[in-house]
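go over whats below:
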Amino acid sequence: MKAVVLAGGSGSGLQAITGGKPKVLIKILGKPFLERVLLNLREAGVDKAVIVSDRPPALEDITYRLGRLMEFEVRNQVGREVVGAIMTAEDILAEGALLVYGDTLVPSEAYLLTFSHSVESGEPTILIVPNEDVRLYGAVLVDELGNVVSFQEKPQKSVEGAYAFGGIAMLNQKLVELLESTGSLEGAINRYVSDIGKVRTVLWSGVWVDLGYPVNVLEAMYYIMKDLKGSFIESGAEVSPKAIIEGPVYIDKGATIDHYAVVRGPAYIGRDSMVGSHTFIRPYTDIEDRVTVSSYDELVWSIISENATIGRASFLGYSIVGVGAIVEPGVITKLLASPGEEGIKAIKVMKGRKLYFKAGAVIAANSRVPSQTILEPGILYK
């Protein structure tokens, strides 16, 4: 079983927190997002992955670490946007490899379902998801048998009755040829449906997160942390006997937890990071490598990226702090959600047919938030 993984682009919605790095390298619980996608593919039975990227050298660490698990080929993207990335690996896709968007998190079952459905039917197959904004992911209209009627790659408005494209597909030789001649996934699928045959769909209603915007990073962290079992402290970490650790909490190598700090999981404390005295780390908090969290802070459902610093007596909730950012003492984020609210609905809720986000602040990479600043909900601080 082979897969083509599209891993290019920094993502306009995430550049503020990545500092320009590829968005698939955003770390959640110490692992780059792309690494989690590849591990799920391996669990599904994929033993070879062709990764298409506009910056192949940036992926070398991942392919090296996972090289004992599966075979990799990294190709430099030729051409622009998604169709250019797809055509970079057209030979492998025409042979029946699984097409995977590398910025989409799903369990291994979603890959297996798409692959097996296509093999059994002998037809191209795409994964579709309900209750997502089709303007962001592409609109797929299907008939009563689940066959594609039409596909819009970038609709300008909502499409009544449409599902969102889930970023996983099985193509065939003819569909790949149509991609080259039409220059778009939309054109290829619609031409195939009208002139050649059926494109089938698989409806997926399980965990599905597209890494498009900061709130999606928080959403992905939630689903990943839900799978943590028990607490684990790596060798070399220093945890004060006066600190309180309530699992599940993962404390990585070289981390320090000072006197009277409370870490209530699920939570992750990254390598060589420090949590100061009397600080309260609430559930669903991800502190990445080499982060300094000072004393008397409170963090809840937030991601603190590598090399960031949080000053004394600050409160951050449902927020993301970019790589290398500095939050000076006494900074407070206002919230639309309660710190004690459970479940993904704390940041993402559907009312009627409209999706609402309840989030704190996004603090850009390498920025500095002055002392005593009050950050309004949803603000991007540069």
Observations:
- The domain at 223-381 is CATH 2.160.10.10 (UDP N-Acetylglucosamine Acyltransferase; domain 1).
